């Protein structure tokens, strides 16, 4: 029963949040439509048109950022729980993010030698790791190194995502994960909230250590699952 109550509370939060995200996306779309209508009906110089197009594109990028930080979190599809190899999924995320990292002169260092199995929804796990890695890259505007590791720790897999970036002060640490809290010009403030919810849903915990001007490490512990235990859960 407790589990059910918690679930319905969560659905409520997700529902409210979805409404507010929809609102956040509608604004840039309305602005974009406005510019396109202006160009359709008015006569403007090439320079003016170029300006409208740039503004419309900026607004569309905004809508895209909001959706990409949030997307798989709110996806109405059924949970698809699988056995996941932590190192494989981390390597995949490093690959996906490598063009973005390269652009900012961020280099990956990996320590992914263990075979650690957890269970969860692969897409959601990817989304949470991508949001974390993206933040780390964005915290290193002058380049730096991004260290990814996964080691066994008792009955858990311990993942570390460490950057040599700008770090966070106590105010930022305190507000981390609150919807719409962002210290960035074009931030959405949705990425960390999604990370916390997904890790919690996977039965894990997150710790953060950060020093202004030195960098940040996110430490995530997720319960390991044995092959036999997973079969039992699946067959039940
Ligand atoms: P956004 O990235 O859109 O700002 P997030 O929810 O992903 O929203 O992150 C919220 C805030 O947390 C960021 O704006 C930043 O202030 C802080 N933050 C998160 N990760 C890091 C990091 N690795 N280094 C420094 N600050 C971070
Ligand atoms: Mg982010």
From TrEMBL:
<keyword id="KW-0547">Nucleotide-binding</keyword>
<keyword id="KW-0418">Kinase</keyword>
<keyword id="KW-0812">Transmembrane</keyword>
<keyword id="KW-0597">Phosphoprotein</keyword>
<keyword id="KW-0808">Transferase</keyword>
<keyword id="KW-0902">Two-component regulatory system</keyword>
<keyword id="KW-1133">Transmembrane helix</keyword>
<keyword id="KW-1003">Cell membrane</keyword>
<dbReference type="GO" id="GO:0005524">
    <property type="term" value="F:ATP binding"/>
</dbReference>
<feature type="domain" description="Histidine kinase">
    <location>
        <begin position="20"/>
        <end position="226"/>
    </location>
</feature>
<keyword id="KW-0067">ATP-binding</keyword>
<keyword id="KW-0472">Membrane</keyword>
<protein>
    <recommendedName>
        <fullName>histidine kinase</fullName>
        <ecNumber>2.7.13.3</ecNumber>
    </recommendedName>
</protein>
């Amino acid at each position: 029963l407790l589990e059910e109550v918690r679930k319905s509370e969560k659905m409520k939060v997700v529902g409210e949040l979805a409404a507010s995200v929809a609102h956040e996306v509608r604004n840039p779309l309305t602005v974009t439509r406005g510019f396109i209508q202006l160009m359709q009906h008015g006569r403007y110089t090439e320079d003016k048109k170029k300006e409208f197009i740039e503004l419309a594109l900026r607004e569309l990028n905004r809508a895209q950022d909001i959706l990409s930080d949030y997307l798989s979190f709110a996806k109405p599809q059924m949970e698809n729980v699988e056995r996941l190899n932590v190192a494989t999924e981390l390597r995949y995320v490093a690959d996906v993010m490598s063009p973005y990292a390269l652009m900012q002169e961020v280099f990956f260092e990996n320590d992914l030698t263990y075979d650690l199995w957890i269970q969860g929804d692969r897409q959601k796990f990817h989304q949470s790791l991508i949001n974390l890695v993206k933040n780390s890259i964005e915290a290193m505007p002058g380049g730096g190194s991004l260290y990814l590791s996964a080691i066994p720790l008792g009955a858990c897999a311990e993942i570390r995502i460490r950057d040599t970036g700008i770090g966070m002060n106590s105010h930022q640490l305190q507000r981390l994960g609150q919807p719409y809290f962002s210290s960035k010009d074009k931030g959405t403030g949705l990425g960390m909230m999604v990370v916390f919810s997904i890790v919690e849903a996977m039965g894990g915990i997150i710790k953060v250590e950060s020093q202004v001007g030195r960098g940040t490490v996110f430490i995530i512990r997720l319960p390991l699952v044995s092959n036999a235990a997973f079969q039992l859960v699946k067959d039940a």
